[in-house]
Model the fold of this input.
Amino acid sequence: IRKFNKMDRLFLEEMEQTLIQADVGLITTEEILEKIQRKNPKSRDETKELISEIMAGIIQEGELCQKNGLGVILFCGVNGVGKTTSLAKIAHYLKKKGKKCKLVAADTYRAAGIEQLEVWAEKLKIPVIKQFQGSDPGAVVFDAINSGLSDRDDYLLVDTAGRMHTREDLMREIVKVYNVVLKKIPEDHIEVLVVLDATTGQNGFNQAVEFKKYLPVQGAFLAKYDSSFKAGIIIRISKELNIPIKFVGTGEKIEDMDTFRKKDYITNIF
Amino acid sequence: ILRDKFEDVFRFIKGTGKIRQENIEQALKKIKMAFLEADVNYRVVRHFIDEVKKKALGESVLKSVSPSQQFIKIVYDEMVKLLGTQTVSLPETFPVNKQTIIMLVGLNGSGKTTTAIKLARKYNKSNPVVIAADPYRPAAVDQLLIMGKKYSIPVFYDKKETFPLRIIQKGIKDSKEKKYNLIIIDTAGRMEMNKELMNEIKEIAQKIKPDYRIFVADALTGQNLINVAKEFQLSTPLNGAILTKFDSDARGGAALSLKYLTKTDIFYIGTGEKLNDLDKFSPSGIAKRILG
Ligand SMILES: Nc1nc2c(ncn2[C@@H]2O[C@H](COP(=O)(O)OP(=O)(O)OP(=O)(O)O)[C@@H](O)[C@H]2O)c(=O)[nH]1
Ligand SMILES: Nc1nc2c(ncn2[C@@H]2O[C@H](COP(=O)(O)OP(=O)(O)OP(=O)(O)O)[C@@H](O)[C@H]2O)c(=O)[nH]1
Ligand SMILES: [Mg+2]
Ligand SMILES: [Mg+2]
Done:
């Protein structure tokens, strides 16, 4: 900060505040501001532009993996982030592209976890594979895979129970579910999406770290992006964990979903 | 943990024997880092750092024997000051000769429905009923009915009614007839910038006049929580808050920001998905947790 005159120092502090309040986090904010200082921008606009460029270099977009044969998309994440709703949105998106899908109600734990998914299945007019509250999620997934293979479906979308990433027992449970899939489906046909809540602060990074530790997380679905939060944490997640953000949720309705575009995301930070 | 972070800052102070401006700057930077990592609001951090700086450079500290211990004490005392020293909570029981109405509001997925059931269990002796006033979320009513049946908690619902206000009015009438004393209203999640949904809450509060309007937020929420709380506050003055998901490794800085910037008391914290996972908010417990 010493290289700048007082006026610019104030502006840098302003930038620090903007980024911190966008939940970018102190570590990532300082890395960005350090890079800025080395480039020695001459104006405020140039500074903002540089920051945007740096972010654009870090943030990763991505698409759903496309493969012939049955694909399984596994939705994981902590409690209440928007897994079930986001799954329904992806099902709607795939159906519009002409893909044959089934929903898999593998949240056998939470009250009405299955019923909630059934409502979406009915709205979408697509089948749902389910058992009952308390049954083994692996068993539901096992049934679903057999059904998906015999019916030659394009995708199975697996809903799982919310789980705190700090609960080792629950993390091992979802690994078991993944392994049930892996028994019958090749690894490159399984997509693990971690659902992140845009209103979450620094803990979002911890969540992504843990889910990536246990599962081959290929992408993130950023739900509740229609909130007043900027979800700055995805910058660090993209950079340090190599997890691309594939979709954003923008509301509670089935069509409230967009492909994640880093250009719009970066504009929204400012 | 924070104490270790300060040990090396103050190690060279022991040599020279006094806390100087430079030592303080380093120590304050560490506090800033710890707080921001804990999701404490940026404005609260700035204010806090200024207060601690003033006190730490004060005469009494410069004369102290153990600078790091004194510094930590100043930080800790200042935090407890922000968090409040007393546990303000809901009353132990509610009056038996009338209805007390609690309304839960908050962002989507913050834990309102689960908390409604937990509160009903906690106040079992006050003859509670939960009103399922979320007609929007798929299977929201089923969620309450299933939990209500499992834990023997009465739930009032009307699956045909699409207006929350009407569900609540019918529920209150029904609760008076059945002589329930504590009415807990579970409302739909909503984003604070959704004018229509915020007006809905405002209207419900005006017509129903709940005794307690409680903001349910999760401990994982980021910097903007304060603005969310303020918006809810504008729609209906909040009596207090419940912060959920404290069983995560989120440090809970949101508690500090909420208390300091909106003066909202925190009645309880949610510590899990089970019925009994609702604990009283302890300012000193949270202070230690935020400091890491
Ligand atoms: N505004 C908004 N609300 C959303 C979005 N995605 C999900 N929600 C809402 O967030 C709440 C929780 O969504 P769920 O899909 O039940 O979340 P979940 O992760 O499956 O929750 P658990 O299974 O209990 O862990 C519901 O009220 C949803 O309508 C979004 O993109 N925008
Ligand atoms: N680990 C943990 N999970 C919690 C806690 N409180 C609620 N949950 C979970 O968080 C998820 C969302 O809880 P809900 O009670 O459905 O949240 P809500 O605010 O009613 O959601 P909407 O009605 O959609 O706005 C569920 O999976 C709950 O079991 C808590 O204190 N700790
Ligand atoms: Mg779910
Ligand atoms: Mg609810």
Observations:
- The mean pLDDT of chain B is 89.
